[in-house]
Amino acid sequence: MRNWAIKLACLPGHVCVAYSGSPELSWRFIKDFRATYPSGAGYDTVISFFELAGRKTGCDFIVGFSHTGKLVSIKDGLRCTGVAKTHWIGDFVAYKRFCEYQYRKKEKPEHGRAISSVMFADEEKGSPASDIYSIMRNVVADREITSVGGFVTVISNRESEFRFSVYSDILMDWPIELTSGQDIQLTDKNNLISTGENDRFSISQISLGYYNINMCAIYILKGNILCLLSEPDERSDGCVIIKNVAPNKIEETIDRVIGFPSRALSLIMSSRKETIAPFRIRSPNEGLGLNLYCEANTMK
Predict the structure, then answer these.
(1) Phi-psi map region of 166: left, alpha, beta (phi>0 left; psi -120 to 50 alpha)
(2) N or C: which end of the chain has fewer CB within 10 A?
(3) Of 277, 232, 294, 263, the residue nearest 4 (C-alpha)
(4) What are phi and psi of 19, to 5 degrees?
(5) Pick from 136, 184, 180: which is nearest to 8 by CA?
(6) Does residue 272 or residue 99 have the better pLDDT?
(7) Which residues pair with 171 in a beta bridge?
């Protein structure tokens, strides 16, 4: 958490790896894989490589294969088998809290104060990214869980490659029609507006337009802060923080820092008090009214 380490890596052969444990040791093996198999490797070879990496480093891995749409967990140096659709590595207490949020056994940290509206700009139809992200962001925001922090980074397969997803996470005010003890339902007839507390609040993930590149950015609208996350090397720990970056300057700022055209894909949304007037839903008799302002959008 202190080093803002990127936790996902794209590798040759349509492979993506997430790790839990030492960033330094994990990335050493990630780089060794790329050097040893510059054109990728077969399924069994990839699994064996990271099983060995797990035994030597004490780190755990989740290995994703784009061609087959398959995830494999490697814990304590061995491949795990199970029927669960969700793969988890790392702190068990955090995973228990993840399940509580997933099955709605615990109120979200912002419950009664705000509604989180997450918009994924380019996910495939039926993608679980939004649901899983929404749960994970609650684990990160939960102050009782000290083993996690930072930002939730999402990556998914596009055709035969992996690419960081483009999303914008906006906080809207808690509906005035509901008390803090009530839960919002899809059949409710509410308007989510901005009164000021969540004005312009937005955390967005920006993807460089290239497939299989270990680089993405997180943008915090309130402070105009751009965090560029990349593969750590001898020159950098992989995190560059640039302040006072306006939404319409994101792409050119990234280009200047990395030294080549990034083709950055971004969607920066927010609620803005000064441009939004309350309104009432007249038809249909159910559903949520969202007042959103587009701060920046480079999606083609």
Answers:
(1) beta
(2) C
(3) 232
(4) -135, 160
(5) 136
(6) 99
(7) 116
